[in-house]
TrEMBL record:
Domain Dehydrogenase E1 component: 50-328
Keyword Isomerase: no
Subunit structure: Heterodimer of an alpha and a beta chain.
UniProt KW keywords: Oxidoreductase, Pyruvate, Thiamine pyrophosphate
UniProt-recorded name of the protein: Pyruvate dehydrogenase E1 component subunit alpha
Cofactor: thiamine diphosphate
Function of the protein: The pyruvate dehydrogenase complex catalyzes the overall conversion of pyruvate to acetyl-CoA and CO(2). It contains multiple copies of three enzymatic components: pyruvate dehydrogenase (E1), dihydrolipoamide acetyltransferase (E2) and lipoamide dehydrogenase (E3).
Gene that specifies this protein: pdhA
Catalysed reactions listed for this entry: N(6)-[(R)-lipoyl]-L-lysyl-[protein] + pyruvate + H(+) = N(6)-[(R)-S(8)-acetyldihydrolipoyl]-L-lysyl-[protein] + CO2
Domain of life: Bacteria
Length: 365
């Protein structure tokens, strides 16, 4: 008892807090003090279009995989706002380091749909896209892109370039040592990097409660000495506002930031997964009430900026864009087997020259 009283008298040397950003609720009603662009339909409609296109593309990609015309595919159903909101806040000269569930961010950044299909079809030409040449290709290993992002941001600082590295990953990445090391050095060196974690509640089949006992994921940035903010990841207005603030601070020399976008994975982890084996369908059904596209659509309708004809036009445009991309993807001739050697070395070592010739001869036969 005496020791407890003595401990209570010890001075508090630091206090921390995590703020949560949310403007557009599941009922499509604005709360709080939203950013000015929340009243600008001309800015919000492109966000809706991009999210709808991402969802239409995802559904088609699943159909292609089920019919043997695409490899394993990670659906972003329910998480579109996290990707689109962040990407829409970036400048062209910034660098995106995406995870495998950031299809929407890639689309916003100018990657063609058929290029995304090529990547998931096992063709590395899908990593050389029409998006900004400096953007990184999709990262499959969990969290390894976080250290890449620190390297990119370090180069920006050395060159005195007002550019920002934006690293996107899932909640599972926060359980990896890569991310802790990346965040530590990002703040030690005060680098222009923003870490965005889409907390979709599941790391494949592992629920968040079995990953961490932390009340939020955003607070993990505090251990590295910088700010972490939680945002409603199904509110594209809040996501974009948080990303704009973090990117602007990084560009101005304010160092790194961490955004936890709380959302929910409405789909299986990938087409190789069956989420019904580890989570009850009623839980997923309840989460549909929070999904981001209906939320923004209803808000625009209430503004008088969206109607039935707009919705029909959007649906038609998305379907036509997806079908045209699929046709181009399916019409792409496969690369010859020997092309696997073409981008390994500036000058192919002698040990591989014979192997390449052997494959070249087999493909000519």
């Amino acid at each position: 008892m005496e020791q407890q009283l003595m401990d209570e008298e010890l001075p508090v040397i630091a206090r921390f807090e995590v703020r949560r950003r949310s403007y557009l609720g599941p009922d499509s009603v604005i709360r709080g003090r939203p950013p000015a662009f929340a009243a600008d339909a001309s800015l919000l409609i492109p966000l809706l279009h991009a999210m709808a296109l991402t969802r239409a593309f995802d559904l088609k990609a699943v159909a292609l995989q089920r019919t043997g015309r695409l490899g394993t595919y990670p659906v972003s159903l329910g998480e579109e706002a996290a990707s689109i909101g962040v990407a829409s806040a970036m400048r062209d000269e910034d660098v995106l380091l995406p995870s495998y569930r950031n299809t929407g961010a890639q689309i916003w950044r100018g990657v063609k749909l058929e290029e995304i299909l090529l990547f998931w079809g096992g063709d590395e030409r899908g990593s050389f896209t029409s998006g900004p040449a400096h953007d990184f290709p999709v990262c499959i290993p969990v969290a390894s892109q976080t250290t890449h992002a620190v390297g990119v941001a370090y180069a920006f600082k050395l060159r005195r370039e007002p550019r920002v590295a934006v690293c996107m990953c899932g909640d599972g990445a926060t359980s990896k040592g890569d991310m802790w090391e990346a965040m530590n050095f990002a703040n030690v060196w005060k680098l222009p990097v923003v870490f965005v974690v889409a907390n979709n509640q599941w790391a494949i089949s592992v629920p968040l409660k079995l990953q961490t006992a932390s009340e939020t994921l955003a607070q993990k940035a505090i251990a590295a000495g910088f700010e972490g903010e939680q945002v409603d990841g199904n509110d594209v207005i809040a996501v974009r506002a948080a990303a704009e603030r973090a990117i602007a601070a990084a560009r101005a020399g304010g160092g790194p930031s961490f955004i936890e976008a709380v959302t929910y994975r409405l789909s299986d982890h990938t087409t190789a997964d069956d989420a019904a084996r580890y989570r009850p369908p009623e839980d997923v059904q309840a989460r549909w009430k929070e999904e981001p596209i209906a939320r923004l659509r209803t808000y625009l309708v209430n503004m008088g900026a969206w109607g039935k004809q707009d919705e029909e036009r959007l649906s038609t445009e998305c379907q036509e864009s997806v079908e045209a991309a699929v046709a181009r993807y399916l019409a792409t001739r496969p690369r010859p087997p020997e092309s696997m050697f073409d981008h390994l070395y500036a000058e192919l070592p002698h040990a591989y020259v014979g192997q390449r010739r052997e494959l070249e001869g087999a493909s000519d036969a």
